[in-house]
Amino acid sequence: MTPASRQKFTVPKLLEHKKAGQPVSMVTAYDATFAQLADIAGVDVLLVGDSVGMVMQGNKNTLSVTMEQMAYHTRMVANAKPMSLIVGDMPFGSYQTCHKDALTNAIQLIQSGAEVVKLEGGIYMADTVAAIVEMDIPVMGHVGLTPQSYHRMGGNRVQGRGEGNAAGSRQRVIEDALAIEAAGACALVLEGIPLDVAEQVTQQLSIPTIGIGAGPHCDGQVLVLHDVLGLSERQFTFSKAFGEVRSVVIDSLSSYVKDVRARTWPDEEHSFH
Ligand code: KIV
After folding, report:
1. Where does the UniProt annotation place the signal sequence (predicted)?
2. Does 255 map to a domain?
3. Which of 1, 165, 244, 245 is the most exposed place for a label (fewest CB within 10 A)?
4. By three-state DSSP, how is residue 71 classified?
5. Do the domain assignments include residue 154?
6. What is the whole-number distance in angstroms between the Cα of residue 260 and the centre of ligand 1?
7. For residue 254, is it within any domain?
8. Atom of ligand 1 at shortest distance to CA of 222?
9. How confident is the model over 248-273, as pLDDT tens digits?
């Protein structure tokens, strides 16, 4: 059960946290079960991320995730009725074509239970962010390593190290962040960038930055749920397993298999008479 004292985390609270210097905690969630557990644990923001394509579907990147799938996972998370703020990720192809598509798809995510939509991109996405914000739909931006730019980046690679002003350069990451704030975003994910770039962006923005692989100076942190739990097979350098759920799951299932094979399950106590 969510503690009775817990209040709903809302969009205005993002800004309040920034002003008060209070860190924002965010994890991904893809279903009602884990949304409820994260809510009970006191997580501020649940991101229904398009990382669902890799984490749950086993794809090598996020590019094949559809609007239908994002709406489905958003509904599952919303069904947990969490006190955490629900952010729904706009998948690749759902907002790049034109403002009308972006608005239609943002509305679909909100109708599925998202309270904020998130989209990737900087300067070239600022108009799209502004168009959605003008319709009173809060937007969270996402710059730096943007997984939907997988092919441009040559894989999921750290950004913000290069000179010049090309996409992925240090200067460009900063300009992208400023453009997304100016467009009206309520918060900004900074992914896969050097910690000093993240620090500079965080100091320059008045909206909270939420980092993943962006060091300790961001206003908040986000990690993929399965990584936090220690459920993933692979551990990334920037991530941390705060639990050992993978071994707990394997041990529990091994015990079940053993008992079924030994015919010690089900026993009298767990049978109907
Ligand atoms: O989809 C996702 O999980 C994300 C996070 C990595 C921020 O966008």
Report:
1. none
2. no
3. 1
4. helix
5. yes
6. 39
7. no
8. 7
9. 999 999 999 999 999 999 999 999 99
Which tens digit of pLDDT belongs to each residue from 137-184?
Answer: 999 999 999 999 999 999 999 999 999 999 999 999 999 999 999 999
The CATH number of whichever domain residue 105 belongs to comes to 3.20.20.60
235 band by pLDDT with thresholds 50, 70 and 90: confident
* Residue 221 · residue 211 · CB < 8 Å: yes
Note the pLDDT of residue 1: 66
The Å distance, Cα 67 to ligand 1 centre, comes to 15
Cα 264 to ligand 1 centroid, rounded to whole Å: 43
Ligand 1: distance of its center to the CA of 254 in Å? Answer: 32
Tell which residue, 28, 78, 34, 19, has the closest CA to residue 49: 28
Residues 172 and 145: beta-carbon distance below 8 Å: no
**Of all helices (H) and strands (E), which one includes residue 220?**
strand 220-223
Angle subtended at Cα 238 by Cα 235 and Cα 239, rounded to the nearest 5 degrees = 50
Q: Whose C-alpha lies nearest to ligand 1, atom 4?
A: 49
Pairing of β 187-191 and β 139-144? parallel
**Is the shortest distance between the CB of 211 and ligand 1 below 6 Å?**
no
Q: Which atom of ligand 1 is nearest to the CA of 120?
A: 8
Domain count, the chain: 1
Determine, yes or no, domain membership for 15.
Answer: yes
Handedness of CA 49, 198, 41, 136 (dihedral sign): negative
pLDDT in tens, 72-119: 999 999 999 999 999 999 999 999 999 999 999 999 999 999 999 999
Is residue 131 in contact with ligand 1, taking CB distance under 6 Å?
no
Q: Is the minimum distance from the CB of 89 to ligand 1 under 6 angstroms?
A: yes
